[in-house]
């Protein structure tokens, strides 16, 4: 059985009995795959689709947060929790007997990188040393916590209070009386924070 016929120009290259192959000899239409016009259309479609997808994604994120609890609080009527290691306003502590803890070793003054602490001391009749002057310039303080880490008797601490804004510079120059008053005011919170963090001290 003959499977091939004579090739004629413009006709089919192969004709089989039964017909299996049908390969055209000549093409009547030609297409330019990467023309400039097609490139521009492709880029426009890609940009439009990407922008549309980003808009849909942004709307999805917005809707997901719309039904969740807010991450903010209504400050100052609501206040968030503070870490026991929070470093706020400075305070000088006392012993339960009322005696000052500070022994005028001046380690806090020596270690302060901002040189914000000024201490003057004198010796008492019983041989112990106590401060006659303990000043902290709160405008210089960088709240690094070195002073309370260096103190051997936990006398100088940074308490939980962070709401001590003032209208004048002079109000941020703390003296010994101001620091002791802060310690008396926040002693319960300071003691509980020190106890909660005692494993790491």
UniProtKB/TrEMBL annotation:
One of its GO terms (biological process) is mitochondrial electron transport, NADH to ubiquinone. Its cofactor is [4Fe-4S] cluster. Residues 93-122, 132-161 form the 4Fe-4S ferredoxin-type domain. SUPFAM superfamilies: 4Fe-4S ferredoxins. InterPro entries: 4Fe4S_Fe-S-bd (IPR017896), 4Fe4S_Fe_S_CS (IPR017900), NADH_quinone_OxRdtase_chainI (IPR010226). Transmembrane segments: none annotated. GO terms for cellular component: membrane; mitochondrion. It comes from the Eukaryota. Keywords: 4Fe-4S, Iron, Iron-sulfur, Metal-binding, Translocase. One of its GO terms (molecular function) is NADH dehydrogenase activity. Core subunit of the mitochondrial membrane respiratory chain NADH dehydrogenase (Complex I) that is believed to belong to the minimal assembly required for catalysis. Complex I functions in the transfer of electrons from NADH to the respiratory chain. The immediate electron acceptor for the enzyme is believed to be ubiquinone. Belongs to the complex I 23 kDa subunit family. PANTHER family: NADH DEHYDROGENASE [UBIQUINONE] IRON-SULFUR PROTEIN 8, MITOCHONDRIAL, NADH DEHYDROGENASE UBIQUINONE IRON-SULFUR PROTEIN 8, MITOCHONDRIAL. This is Uncharacterized protein LOC551078. The gene is 551078.
């Amino acid at each position: 059985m003959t499977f091939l016929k004579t090739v004629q120009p413009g006709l089919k290259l192969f004709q089989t009995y039964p017909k299996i192959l049908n390969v055209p000899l000549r093409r009547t239409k030609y297409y330019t795959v990467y023309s400039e016009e097609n490139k521009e259309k492709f880029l426009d479609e890609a940009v439009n689709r990407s922008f549309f997808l980003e808009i849909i994604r942004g709307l999805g994120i917005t809707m997901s947060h719309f039904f969740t609890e807010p991450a903010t609080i209504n400050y100052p009527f609501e206040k968030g929790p503070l870490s026991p290691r929070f470093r706020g306003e400075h305070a000088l502590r006392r012993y339960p007997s009322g005696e000052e803890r500070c022994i005028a070793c001046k380690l806090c003054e020596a270690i302060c990188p901002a040189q914000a602490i000024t201490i003057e001391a004198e010796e008492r009749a019983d041989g112990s040393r106590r401060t006659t002057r303990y000043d902290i310039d709160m405008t210089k303080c960088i709240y690094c916590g070195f002073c309370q880490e260096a103190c051997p008797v936990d006398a100088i601490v940074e308490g939980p209070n962070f709401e001590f804004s003032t209208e004048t510079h002079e109000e941020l120059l703390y003296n010994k009386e101001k620091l002791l008053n802060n310690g008396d005011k926040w002693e319960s919170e300071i003691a509980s924070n020190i106890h909660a963090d005692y494993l790491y001290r």
